[in-house]
Amino acid sequence: MNWFEYVAFRILRLFRRLHITRLIRVGPTRMFMDYFKDYEKVSAVRGIFGEKTDDVLRNLKVEFIGFGYMGVDNTDGHLLVNARYLKNGDKTDIYLDVVHELCHVKQFMEGKELFDERYDYVDRPTEVEAYRYTVQEARRLGLSDQRILDYLKTEWMSQEDLKKLAKYVQVDC
Ligand SMILES: [Zn+2]
């Protein structure tokens, strides 16, 4: 193989790799509304997006992941959902998580940094805002402080952090 052939070979291989990368990184193609029904009618959701609610939810994409619970991708603001959690998780928890994550979708649309590393998770202003709104909705549903505390508790949160978060959202510990 002469140098020209070698370079041509390398370029071809690079193209092929780029193509594969592009295929893998095609992004989420599933739509939120196909999996989460009637959320556009929920007043807590309308409280987040106002008259833009239908528009936002109609354009919101969802990607199913194999770990964790739910989240928002901070590159384009789509929803990330663990398919197994959606199938087997507590329905009230899932509902509250969707409300919480939609708060992050709104924050993303406003240009806020969702993963501001200057703060710990429970101290992050975007998290506190989303949790406050979610707890307000949990109270409206009639959930007790104990039940809300159970909801706030996750296996990766320390007791100290849970207490801090409970204080921020005014839930009795
Ligand atoms: Zn959050």
Summarize the structure.
The protein has helices spanning 3-24, 32-35, 43-49, 53-59, 83-88, 91-109, 125-140, 145-152, 159-168; strands at 30-31, 61-65, 70-72, 79-82.
Task: Please characterize this protein's 3D structure.
This protein has 173 residues and is α+β, with helices and mostly antiparallel strands. The protein is 57% helix and 8% strand. It has nine helices and four strands, in the order αβαααβββααααα. The chain has helices at 3-24, 32-35, 43-49, 53-59, 83-88, 91-109, 125-140, 145-152, 159-168, and strands at 30-31, 61-65, 70-72, 79-82. The protein has a four-stranded mixed beta sheet with strand order 1-2-4-3. Strand 3 (70-72) and strand 4 form a beta hairpin. Helix 3 (43-49) runs parallel beside helix 6 (91-109) and helix 6 (91-109) crosses helix 7. It is elongated, with a radius of gyration of 21 Å. The model has no long low-confidence stretch (mean pLDDT 91). The chain binds zinc ion (ZN). Zinc ion binds next to helix 6 and helix 7.
Give me the oligomer status: single chain
Order of helices and strands: HEHHHEEEHHHHH
| Distinct bound molecules | zinc ion
Unreliable residue stretches = none
Number of DSSP-assigned strands: 4
Residues in helices, as a percent range: 55-70%
Largest sheet: 4 strands, mixed
Q: Beta-strand level of the residues, as a percent range?
A: 5-15%
